[in-house]
C-alpha cells in the first residue's frame, strides 16, 4: 500500500481538509462539507441521504448511478462532488410529480413491468428522462439505442424498451394504452399483482446508504 493509499480512508476522506459543496438537488438548495475526493455518488447517498442513486460497478460501466447534471446524464461514481459546486442535479427522487406521485417514466416502468429487482432502475429512469427531452417520439430501434449504456441483469430489456415507448406516450398526453403490446415482451406479466412499483421506481426505501459497497 502506498502512502497516498494509506492516507485515504474508504470514504475518500483521508487527512484532507473539507470543502463546502452547494448544489440545487431536485429543485432544493443543498450543501455539505466533504473531502476533495468524495465521489458525487457518495455525496448524494451519504451526505445528502438520497439513497435512490445506486452504486454498482463503480467504474462507470453499469449505469446504475446515473443522475442528471444540468439536464444531462452522467455517471456519478466517476465524478468528484467538488467538481459540481453550484450545479443543478436531478436524482431518481426528483423524477416524480410535485405531489409525490410517479413521473411519466416511472409510471411507464410500472405499466410495462420494466423492472424486476429494481437495482438498475434509477439509472434507467434518469437516462430515459433526459433522452425523451431530446427525442420525444422514439422508434423501437431508437429506444434500444437510448438504453444501450445501462445494464440490467433481470429483464432481458424487452420491457424496458416498452417502457421507453410508453413514457413517450404519457409525455405526449396519451394514456389509452399501457404499452405492453409494443414489443415481443407483451406476454410477460405486467407486474401489477406483484408490486405496485413505487418503492423501486421512485428511489425511496430501496437501500441503506452503504448498499452496493460491501466489498469496501
UniProtKB/TrEMBL annotation:
Keywords: 2Fe-2S, Iron, Iron-sulfur, Metal-binding, Oxidoreductase. This is (2Fe-2S)-binding protein. GO terms for molecular function: 2 iron, 2 sulfur cluster binding; metal ion binding; oxidoreductase activity. Pathway: Alkaloid degradation; nicotine degradation. InterPro entries: 2Fe-2S-bd, 2Fe-2S-bd_dom_sf, 2Fe-2S_ferredoxin-like_sf, 2Fe-2S_ferredoxin-type, 2Fe2S_fd_BS, Beta-grasp_dom_sf, Diverse_Oxidoreductases. Gene3D superfamilies: 3.10.20.30, [2Fe-2S]-binding domain (1.10.150.120). Residues 19-95 form the 2Fe-2S ferredoxin-type domain. Residues 173-216 are annotated as: Disordered. Residues 177-205 have a biased composition (Basic and acidic residues).
Amino acid at each position: 500500500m502506498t502512502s497516498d493509499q494509506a492516507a485515504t480512508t474508504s470514504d475518500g476522506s483521508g487527512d484532507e481538509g473539507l470543502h463546502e459543496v452547494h448544489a440545487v438537488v431536485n429543485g432544493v438548495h443543498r450543501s455539505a462539507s466533504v473531502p476533495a475526493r468524495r465521489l458525487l455518488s457518495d455525496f448524494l447517498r451519504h451526505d445528502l441521504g438520497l439513497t435512490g442513486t445506486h452504486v454498482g460497478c463503480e467504474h462507470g460501466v453499469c449505469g446504475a448511478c446515473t443522475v442528471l447534471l444540468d439536464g444531462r446524464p452522467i455517471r456519478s461514481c466517476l465524478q468528484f462532488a467538488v467538481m459540481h459546486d453550484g450545479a443543478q442535479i436531478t436524482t431518481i427522487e426528483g423524477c416524480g410529480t410535485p405531489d409525490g406521485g410517479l413521473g411519466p417514466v416511472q409510471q411507464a416502468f410500472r405499466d410495462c413491468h420494466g423492472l424486476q429487482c429494481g437495482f438498475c432502475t434509477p439509472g434507467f429512469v434518469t437516462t430515459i428522462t433526459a433522452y425523451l427531452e431530446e427525442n420525444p417520439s422514439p422508434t423501437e430501434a431508437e429506444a434500444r439505442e437510448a438504453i444501450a449504456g445501462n445494464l440490467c441483469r433481470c429483464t432481458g430489456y424487452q420491457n424496458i424498451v416498452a417502457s421507453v415507448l410508453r413514457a413517450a406516450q404519457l409525455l405526449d398526453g396519451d394514456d389509452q394504452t399501457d404499452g405492453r403490446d409494443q414489443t415481443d415482451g407483451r406476454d410477460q406479466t405486467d407486474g401489477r399483482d406483484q408490486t405496485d412499483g413505487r418503492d423501486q421506481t421512485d428511489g425511496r426505501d430501496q437501500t441503506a446508504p452503504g448498499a452496493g459497497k460491501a466489498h469496501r
